[in-house]
Design goal:
By secondary structure, the protein is of the alpha+beta class. The chain folds into three domains: 6-72, no CATH class; 98-327, Orthogonal Bundle (Hypothetical protein af1432), CATH 1.10.3210.10; 335-401, no CATH class. The chain is built from 15 helices and nine strands. Helix 2 crosses helix 12, helix 3 packs across helix 5 and helix 7 packs across helix 10 (245-253). The chain starts with 5 loop residues before the first strand and ends with a helix. The chain binds fe (ii) ion. Residues 201, 229, 254-255 line the site of fe (ii) ion.
């Protein structure tokens, strides 16, 4: 993607004879089987536009060129500079350290996943949702986030493919609690945010398994069935006693997009409430950073940068910036490579978000595991992060080191 022959152009500038290198959007939002293809008919251009894709990367070495368009390198540099401007403005400090909270957060995440699994089973069997059954869990999650939000959000990065549906609900709840707190929501509203996060995909209980867990790209018909989970959620939650408007908004609005290309209502801009806009950001971030039956997990910092690039079309840019400030540029649980060749897991954020505390586990130059030790980049100006690394590349089990 860093090649100078790759350019980013608006979808409206697409012409036949161009070679599409990448559709600049979340893979879940488009109906194409591949991201790379020669544009040989206008129907495909129309299909790209009607899928809500605003920008496309083209490879001008393999197809028609355009004069005025930034290269992929220029786009990446612009996003990087936006991210670096956030580096000196981390969100407020935590009451406890990640190390003190992480075991509680791990147990809580496991327990909450089991509560949601049972709840979804019950709904599938026709039972009504009882908010009281998840109230205590929601409150414990709020308290964990208030002690240290990086512990629960870092732990929830580690998911299994087959438990994705349930783990995603728990993870979205933890991220939304974190985000709502940083936005200054009142504590009783944050509790409702937690309930809304846990229940946001409850309608998936009515989505057929073969669509929900299909190990590949959905056909357009299957995608329509998948989209129906939002309406199912709304129908289920409207029948739920004691459900708040905040929780309903999270469930009904998390697939809406600022430019009106989302679903089910196609709302745009200020038609989407603040919590609706926040839910969209959190939902996509968690989906991108999760391993699925058909894809590997993206590294958190890669996902955050991509989301910044997709805003303001899909997301409120200022809110994406605030979200990055909550989690850090390299969120806890990220694997990063240093200039010295050392590779480490992010343990804690520092005052400078580009210089977190790390647990060193690997040496990329020597290609061998290192004696495990902690390094605070805030106190070590001789080294710096130069890239994010996929744990799968070195067979590193992040969960074992947190
Ligand atoms: Fe959803």
């Amino acid at each position: 993607m860093a090649s100078a022959t790759i350019k980013r152009i608006p979808t409206s500038a697409l012409r036949t004879g161009m070679f599409v290198h990448d559709l600049d959007c979340n893979w879940m939002d488009h109906p194409f089987l591949s991201n790379k293809f020669l544009l040989d008919n206008v129907q495909t251009i129309q299909k790209i536009a009607s899928a809500g894709i605003r920008h496309v990367y083209i490879d001008v070495s393999q197809g028609r060129d355009v004069e005025e368009a930034p290269t992929a390198q220029e786009v990446q540099a612009a996003v990087q500079s936006q991210v670096e401007q956030l580096a000196a403005k981390p969100s407020e400090e935590s009451k406890t350290s990640v190390a003190e909270e992480v075991d509680r957060a791990r147990a809580l995440f496991r327990e909450a996943t089991s509560v949601i699994r049972n709840l979804m089973e019950d709904v599938r069997l026709g039972k009504q949702v009882e908010v009281e059954s998840i109230d205590p869990m929601a409150e414990r999650m709020v308290q964990s986030v208030f002690r240290n939000h990086h512990a629960l959000t870092g732990i929830s990065r580690i998911k299994t493919k087959d438990e994705y549906t349930f783990m995603h609900c728990v993870s979205v709840a933890g991220l939304l609690i974190t985000f709502a707190r940083a936005q200054g929501f009142a504590e009783q509203d944050i509790h409702q945010v937690a309930i809304g996060g846990l229940l946001h995909d409850i309608g998936k209980t009515l989505t057929p398994d073969e669509v929900l867990n299909k190990p590949g790209k959905l056909t357009p018909e299957e995608f329509e069935i998948m989209k129906g989970h939002v309406t199912h959620s709304r129908d289920i939650l409207q029948e739920t006693l004691g459900i708040s408007q905040t929780a309903l908004d999270i469930s009904v609005l998390h697939h809406e997009r600022i430019d009106g290309t989302g679903y089910p209502l196609g709302l745009s801009g200020e038609q989407i409430s603040l919590i609706g806009k926040m839910s969209a950001i959190v939902d996509v971030y968690d989906a991108l950073t999760s391993v699925r039956v058909y894809k590997e997990a993206w590294e958190p910092s890669v996902a955050l940068k991509k989301m910044l690039e997709w805003s303001p079309a899909h997301f409120d840019r200022t809110l994406v910036q605030h979200f990055i400030r909550c989690l850090g540029i390299y969120p806890v649980g990220s694997l990063v490579a240093l200039e010295s060749g050392l590779v480490g897991i992010v343990l804690e954020q520092g005052k400078d978000l580009l210089r977190p505390q790390l647990r060193i586990v690997y040496n990329g130059r020597k290609r061998c595991y290192e004696k495990v030790r902690d390094v605070d980049l805030g106190n070590n100006q001789n080294d710096r992060i130069i890239a994010t690394v996929s744990p799968a590349d070195h067979g590193i089990d992040i969960g074992a080191f947190l």
